[in-house]
Design goal:
By secondary structure, the chain is mainly alpha-helical. Helix content is about 35%, strand content about 5%. It is built from two helices and three strands; from the N terminus they run H-H-E-E-E. It has a three-stranded antiparallel sheet, with helices on one face. The longest helix has 27 residues.
């Protein structure tokens, strides 16, 4: 019985690597040509991540952090206001850091929220850092993440 080696040849591996390289460069070019759009997408993803962490906080403790405790309550057990009894050791964010918005500023947090009266609002003011605006300067909040621009 003849045993046939099954595996990839060096040429096949090089072809796959070349194809992956071409695809990666196309994606990079598309993202680099639209940095404003990429930043807005990152802000939306950050806000979703913060929303999920806040929901876990509430699941463990029965309430959301207060406005005064802020998003810092996701990485450090609050010492002011209502103290959570079942705060998760290690916090609620994987890297142990509250992310900055894509423009290098802190996200805003309010509980109870103006837009979400039964929970919280998280938002950023966009590229210009001021309330309102259009396009890159438009505010991004957890109440308008699905709106088309």
């Amino acid at each position: 019985m003849i045993k046939k080696n099954t595996g990839f040849t060096l040429i096949e591996i090089l072809i796959v690597i070349t194809i992956l390289g071409i695809l990666a460069s196309l994606v990079a070019i598309n993202v680099m040509n639209r940095p404003g759009e990429a930043r807005r997408m990152k802000a939306k993803l950050d806000i979703r991540t913060l929303e999920n962490a806040l929901k876990l906080f509430k699941l463990d403790n029965g309430f959301y952090p207060s406005t005064e405790q802020g998003l810092k309550a996701l990485i450090e057990k609050p010492t002011i206001g209502r103290i959570p009894k079942h705060w998760r050791k290690g916090g609620y964010l994987e890297k142990g850091v509250v992310p900055k918005d894509p423009w290098g500023r802190d996200y805003y947090y309010m509980c109870p929220g103006i837009h979400n009266k039964d929970s919280f609002d998280i938002w950023t003011y966009g590229a210009d850092g001021e309330e309102g605006g259009e396009g890159e300067n438009a505010d991004i909040g957890n109440w308008n993440l699905n709106e088309e621009e």
